[in-house]
Write a structure and sequence with these properties.
Blueprint (H helix, E strand, L loop, with lengths): L22 H15 L11 H8 L3 H14 L2 E2 L7 E2 L6 H4 L16 H12 L21 H11 L16 H15 L8 E4 L2 H12 L5 E6 L3 H9 L3 E8 L2 E2 L1 H7 L5 E4 L13 H14 L2 E5 L23 E6 L11 E4 L2 H13 L6 H12 L2 H27 L4 E2 L7 E5 L6 H10 L5 E2 L12 E5 L5 H18 L3
Parallel strand pairs: 4-5, 4-7, 7-8, 8-9
Antiparallel strand pairs: 1-2, 3-10, 5-6, 9-10, 11-12, 12-14, 13-14
Helix pairs in contact: 1-3, 2-3, 6-13, 7-13, 8-9, 8-12, 14-16, 15-16
The structure holds pyridoxal-5'-phosphate.
Pyridoxal-5'-phosphate binds next to helix 8.
Length: about 500
């Protein structure tokens, strides 16, 4: 007996274009849409694969493949010996409470408070454009040298650079060995490869230090002014931050430790206070270590650019005085390039494993190939040669900037400092540094204002001027522009 030919009435199937490839995928899409639209209802029987194939003029295998895909997705249900049916589930319009194909937007979820907080951070932590006086833009003469490029090409192409499994989240051992060796010689840091954790830079080191050392609601000490990326990390962790003023000797340790004996961690920039520039004096270093020992506290040392000292040897790191109390954070951002996203933590022995675990939690570790390149660059002696070379270039650029400021803007006080990649100038009383930075942006120069780095109690008005990535000509020209901006905003 001749079988009756089934005419299948599913309008969504009209969207299938037989002249295009991927018929099976198109059929699955069309059926999925029909289910979402309510054209096909939960429990409704579908035609057999043979009937649908005949009706549409496709092969039976193509239809079976589409059914199998939808069964796997949970849109269709099949039982042995029975027809395939539409599965019941959240795609049913009455269950979901939404008509998926309609234009109705549905209920907009209430945004958690963290959304606006993180959005504000995206703005606050955004890098400045690559024009003077942006900090940390190693280009031209100060960019990484040919050795870096050659080693990079060779090492990245090797099998070892991209191992087939996950690499050690603590970081490449060869790099940790090279860093321990370098830090011992150059920074008087007591480090062993086992105590080093490779990070994506000091920003991540600060984040990890807050995670490992501080519970929400605990108390930390930070300098005033301070690096805004640190304050954001602490506030984000629900940590109570006491800001301690700095003077010509750095953080006022006595004020900190007398007033806040309950603090668990002090975050400091002892070699080169950020942003003001003074080092932490030896008596203050000893007092800070004494506080840590007496109160069972930790010190987090952010040593972001200490290699770049111009008037003598870099100051030894605080870590060398108390390796059991100090979590030391170093970075390749300043002497190499911030885009490398590589830095390191030297943790006291009892904390090293915890830091490695926290590092694994937030990303499994840093890219392996770049770690291999830096390790080779350090091992073969190029890294320290590079630092010696850029130190000379930066010293000249810094002097050009200071001379230009003295000539063009003698009213501005230059903060005394002899290292790093930026100079801080103080603005005359009553001049709004944020307004100056914003007007400067319109004039094609990039500046960071000092006041947003201060607590509410301390409102210093000043500007941070980076010089590292710019030639003498660019710096002089930019100082002239700054003079014009300032005379428009603060004549006299
Ligand atoms: C004081 C200070 N700490 C930490 C950082 C973050 O550096 P990194 O690029 O290593 O994350 C910066 C960057 O400017 C900084 O100035």
């Amino acid at each position: 007996m001749a079988r009756r030919r089934l005419i299948v009435e599913i309008p969504a199937l009209g969207a299938i274009d037989g002249t295009r490839g991927g018929i099976g995928r198109q059929l699955a899409d069309a059926l999925r849409n029909a289910i979402a639209n309510g054209e096909l209802k939960a429990g409704e029987r579908l035609p057999s694969t043979r009937a649908l194939a005949v009706s549409l003029g496709f092969s039976r295998g193509t239809v079976a493949e589409a059914y199998e895909q939808l069964i796997a997705e949970g849109c269709l249900a099949a039982r042995a010996g029975a027809s395939t049916r539409v599965a019941s589930g959240p795609h049913e319009p009455h269950v979901a409470g939404l008509k998926l194909s309609g234009k109705a937007p549905g209920r907009v979820p209430a945004l958690p408070a963290s959304v606006s907080r993180y959005a504000a951070m995206a703005e606050g932590l955004a890098p400045l454009p690559m024009v003077p006086f942006s900090v940390a833009v190693p280009e031209g003469d100060v960019a990484m040298d040919d050795h870096w490029r050659r080693l990079g090409n060779r090492v990245r192409a090797s099998q070892a650079a991209v191992p087939s499994g996950y690499a050690d989240p603590q970081g490449l051992l060869a790099l940790r060995v090279a860093i321990a060796d370098y830090l011992r010689r150059a920074r008087a840091v007591r480090a062993s490869p086992e105590n080093i954790v490779i990070t994506e830079g000091t920003q991540q080191g600060l984040y990890l230090a807050a995670k490992v050392l501080l519970a929400p609601g605990s108390v930390a000490l930070a300098e005033d002014p301070a690096y805004p990326g640190l304050i954001s990390v602490l506030e984000d962790g629900g940590i109570l931050v006491h800001r301690i003023p700095v003077d010509s000797q750095g953080l006022d340790v006595a004020a900190a430790t007398d007033d806040f004996p309950d603090a668990g961690v002090a975050f400091v920039t002892p070699s080169h206070q950020y942003p003001m520039g003074m080092p932490l004096s030896m008596p203050r270093r000893l007092a800070l270590v004494e506080w840590a020992r007496r109160h069972g506290g930790w010190i987090v040392e952010d040593d972001y650019d200490s290699e770049l000292r111009y008037a003598g040897q870099p100051f030894p790191a605080l870590q060398g005085l108390a390796g059991d109390r100090v979590v030391y954070l170093g970075t390749f951002s300043k002497v190499m390039a911030p885009s490398l996203r590589l830095g390191y933590i030297v943790a006291p022995e009892c904390l090293a494993k915890a830091f490695a675990g926290a590092r694994a939690l937030i990303g499994r570790g840093s890219p392996s190939a770049e770690q291999h390149v830096i390790a080779a660059y350090m091992r073969e002696g190029y890294f320290e040669a590079h630092i010696r070379r850029i130190r000379g270039i930066y010293a000249e650029r810094r002097q050009v900037l200071i001379d230009a400021l003295r000539t063009e803007l003698p009213r501005l006080r230059i903060e005394p400092a002899d290292q790093g990649m930026h100079v801080v100038v103080r603005l005359p009383d009553g001049v709004d540094d944020v307004a100056v930075a914003s007007a400067a942006r319109n004039a094609g120069i990039a500046l960071r204002a000092l006041s947003p780095m201060c607590s509410g109690d301390l409102r210093l008005s000043g500007l941070m001027l980076g010089f590292g990535g710019f030639t003498a000509g660019q710096l002089k020209e930019a100082v002239q522009r700054l003079r014009r901006v300032l005379s428009a905003l603060a004549p006299g």
